[in-house]
Specification:
The radius of gyration is 17 Å and the shape is globular. About 80% of the residues lie in helices and about 0% in strands.
Length: about 190
């Protein structure tokens, strides 16, 4: 456990640098050790965000509430995994074996950096708001804003990473095919279900 905490403490400065410098995202992707640590904490962060979404009823499809209480967290994590799977499939179909594979991988996986940062921000802010006794409707708004902000920053960084090596047209197609369409499908599915 202490090794894991030390790894988290060691990677946090690099993740915070990702907020200001897009090249830090490429650096993490190229550094195998930091990439593994990032991937580990990203998976944990997805589970934590899923539990927070279930707790505060943030975009959870209504059919999940028909399940037993023990199965709800697994179902929410499943919905998130389906979304990530759709993104992965779209990436495989769109990119295949492209000559700029490393830059595309850095762009594709940089969202994991912002999942971790967003999770830390959510835990801190929701913890403070809950401690202060703020109403759940305000907490839900904060949840929406922080998740949206994390996603927006990840999208901007992806665009910057791709623009450094690709034409504006390829960057636009990548963002549309691998970000906007899967996210739109997820939001539509949550709204319908």
């Amino acid at each position: 456990v202490l090794v894991n905490i030390r790894n988290l403490i060691n990677i946090m400065p690099v993740l915070f640098n990702c907020l200001t410098f897009w090249k830090e995202n490429v650096y993490i992707q190229d550094n195998i050790s930091q990439m593994r640590i990032r991937n580990y904490y990203s998976a944990i962060s997805v589970a934590v965000i899923a539990l927070l979404a279930l707790r505060y009823d943030f975009g959870v499809p209504s059919f999940i509430y028909g399940l037993d209480a023990e199965l709800r967290p697994i179902a929410v994590i499943g919905v998130i995994m389906i979304y990530l799977g759709v993104r992965e499939l779209a990436s495989y179909i769109t990119l295949g074996r492209h000559e700029r594979r490393s830059i595309f991988n850095a762009a594709k996986y940089c969202v994991r950096n912002y999942i971790i940062l967003g999770c830390v921000l959510l835990l801190v802010s929701l913890g403070i708001l809950s401690f202060l006794g703020v109403s759940e409707s305000v907490i839900k708004i904060v949840f929406y804003v922080e998740i949206g902000l994390s996603y927006f920053i990840a999208l901007v960084r992806k665009t910057q990473i791709l623009a450094s090596k690709c034409s504006p047209f390829i960057t636009f197609l990548y963002i549309c095919a691998l970000e906007i369409v899967p996210t739109g499908l997820l939001l539509a599915a949550v709204a319908v279900l």
